Write the structure tokens for this entry.
Amino acid sequence: MSPSTLHRLDRISVALLLLWAGAALGFGVFSAPVFFRELPSRDMAGHIAGLIIGRLDWAAWTAFGLAGISWGARWMAELKEELIGPIRLWSAAWLVAMLMCLASTFVVTPKVRAIRARIGAPIETLAPDHADRVAYNRAHGVSRNLFFLRILLALGLAATVGMMPKKGQSPEA
């Protein structure tokens, strides 16, 4: 792959990662708190926020997945040169982000939805020590942590994608 093509792929990767991180950060910092403050019930706010999180999860799959094309062409070149290098480290961070997408989309979000469906009433109507409320709070906390960790990973990957060595360039340069 030519250096100009790699540069273009790097730019696309950075744009996708920053676009997703901006959307996620905008939702998490600006929109979600307003939903919970202004809507008539926390249950309705949680339902709307959950729908948005579902869409952001799928957008994360797209952003992180397409950003992975930046390192695909470089992986084999580094395989011959170093045991651990910048491409492998970037790839490990990318893999963690993809695993977080997997956990969020197919494990945590369905669990939160199942608990909400089982309860059939607003979460705040349950006693604080009720088993379903405790399970919901735990799953919601995991979801929130995965969400913000993915934002940090997206920003970190976007900041470092251009630092990966190009074809014919030594990793130390």
The longest helix spans residues 3-38. The chain has one domain: 3-163.
